Amino acid sequence: MATEYGDVRYEEEYILNSRGMKLFTCSWVPTDCEPKGLIFLCHGYAMECSISMKDAAIRLGKAGFAVYGMDYEGHGKSEGLQGYVPSFDAVVNDCSDHYSKISERKENKKKTRILMGESMGGAVALLLHRKKPEFWDGAVLIAPMCKIADDIRPHPMVISVLTKLCNFIPTWKIIPTQDVVDLAFRDPEVRKEIRNNPLCYKGKPRLQTGYQLMTVSMELEHRLEEVTLPFLIVHGEEDTVTDPSVSKLLYEKASSINKSFKLYPGMWHSLSYGEFPENRDIVFSDIVTWLKEKINMGNSRLERQQKQANDHK
Question: Which pTM was predicted?
Answer without folding.
Answer: 0.92
